[in-house]
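G., the chain you wanted modeled:
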Amino acid sequence: MVILIKVTAIVLVLLVLLRLKVDLGLALLLDSVLVAVLFRMPIASFARSGGQALIAGETLQLLAILALVLYLGNFMQAGGHFGSMVAALKAVIRDSRLVLAIPSAFIGLLPMMAGAMMGAPIVEEAARRWNLSAAWKTFLNYWFRHIWEYSWPLYANLILASLILKVPIGRISLVQLPFTILAASAGLVILFRKVPRLPEEPPRTRRLSDYLRIVSSIWPIFLTIVLMFAARLAMLPALALACLASQVLSRFPLKERWTIFRKSVTLRIILLTAAVMVFKRILETSGALDAVVTAVPPGGPARYLLLFAAPFFVGLLTGVNQAFVAIAFPLLAPIIGTGNPDPVLMLFAYVSGFVGILLSPAHLCLAFTAEYFKADLRDVYKILIGPVAVVFTAALAVLVIFRIL
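Predicted structure as tokens:
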């Protein structure tokens, strides 16, 4: 109980700091100090862990990936690529509101850190026709980017779950596919209720040129996907090659190229990334995460609470997609089963963890998308809480109907 009180305090303090409009990076650093104090982490260990987080290969790789993603976004924005894509999509989609969802959902098929940043400029361009607020643009880009993570087998969360529970990943994907459909449906209901349908333009026959125009308008994104999926390159070299190709094929003058590059590497993004990674490392080294997953006894009715609490709080605290599986699922494996795991318990644990991820202020996609659109996270949460509750309630209903009643 004491552990859960400490974890609750950590989450509440972070939310209060955000409500007071404290910069997210600073709020995460202050919360890191609170974690160290509550879990009695020596000052020397805190300083050492924070320093290691700043120079870790994972941090440097993330910064490089973010810079390249932002560069591609700025390059395509400057070249009018996003406007061309939106225009082409409107030619092949009867309801223009879907243009606000499809690009982010498509990019969501590409597993990458802070991947929502790649779709943000497209949503920005598409949203001009409705004059949507920053919070709504953040939600639409963020939500549809993440509808696949319940079932798309290329995501590390599912791969880890498959390895830990010793079950074919195809079985996990099949069991959890309805939640991808549910998440997409919930997002579309909210989209259609908020965004009015525009007067229909005169219908015309869809042409092959329209589809080719979609591909050509965002060819750097398609090139990145091909390099990752077909050539099996890692994310960073795939992005680097796509950026290099954009430079080779670009006709921008040297001065404009420099402007695009300079806009892609900002001190604010660097500091926010550093704060997220320090917060993550302090949670790991302070023993806070281990304490969370062992706070509830795994026997009897309490196992259902553990199936929720362990993955949810790890996801909420870290904001790292793989973390809730890598940390919580080994503890939960005796409850869920291995080799032939209980699909209902597996589903409930996974959705609980992913709900924590979606709500986490430390989630890179949420943090950087809100930063891109200059949105207040409080306003984003007001929109986000509804569809998140729908997804979690559905998972809870499955648990209650098929295992508890």
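The chain has one domain: 2-196+207-404.

Shout if anything looks off.
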